[in-house]
Amino acid sequence: MRGGRRVLVAVAVLLIGGALPPATAVPDARAAPVLTGAPDTAVPWELGTSQPRPFRLTLSGTGGPSRTTVSATGDQVRASPPTQTLDTSDTASATVELTADPGLHTVVLTVQRDTGPSTTLTYTVWVPGGAPLDGHGDLTGRRWAAPDAASHSDGRRDRSQDAVWFLDDRWARLGFPRPGVGGCTAATAGCLRYWYDPGTGLVQVGDEAIGVLRPEGPYLDGHLPRGDDWEDGMATYDQPLGWWRAGRRVEGRWRWHDGDELSGSLQALTLVLHRDARFVVRRSRDAGSVVQRGRYTLGRSGALRLSRGPGPRALTLSACLDTSGAGGSGGAGSKGEGCVVLAHPGLDRLEGGVLDPVPRSR
């Protein structure tokens, strides 16, 4: 994961001296800082070994003479600058750029105003290439999509939907494999070892992503967008997924559209499946539309095979379940009433996406 894209992680640090004073009073510069709007300490952050990840801090002014010292420390973590002192009589900002050695580390951010007590935040940070997470938990059969994952480039939003598939107690896949999401026995062809610590909730997927398992699904940092030394596309994978049983006939109409400001060549894709095994795939581009028709079959682990072109014929289709994950493997109904996840080589940058159901009237 290499590249030059950067995102500033905003850390708003509000310094307040006790209860809110009258408008004419000067806040107590000796009180401990109170931090608000800081990055979530409950989730890990990916860093790089050479490409620094900037943490920007905003320090509100006290209205009177005061100085605030910001420091960042951590084993095998490099902060630039490690310590800085700012005049915070008025609002001030500070930036700490972090890099680290491969592996999992802890960073302590300390903010101290004048001679008063300090306020600290402790973060877990990770760099690919080190010893794996010490976790032996089992996520077999758990599958989620991230319908609203996004990153930003040059101030523009880039939607990059994603999915994660935990195949057994050792192996996982990220993204949109096809045809079908088959099993793994070695770290090849998109198969990634994963480690899960039920005690802390931390999850590591290969050297691709670090995250934490939340009640709604895993939060991962590192896989989106592809190609960065550290990643700016953190996402919560909160849409549970299931399979239709092999040989099942499905009725439904779904549509994907390009929802970002970094437009690709494909603007929209519509998938129509009928219970008599007929299908229609319509791909819309600036230059016009391409329609693919024929018959389909559903195989194991979401393998969707189309009988004829023009277009790809070996895809992957999975069904969105309700937020409890009800239905499990093979539990999706014959009517496509919810969203689906489709792996298609022409679909967005990760070659897959989440398709929303389209009412029959449309």
TrEMBL record:
Signal is among the record's keywords: yes
Cleavable signal peptide: 1-25
Chain residue ranges for the region called Disordered: 43-90
Biased composition (Polar residues): 65-74, 81-90
Assigned keywords, A-Z: Signal
Protein name: Uncharacterized protein
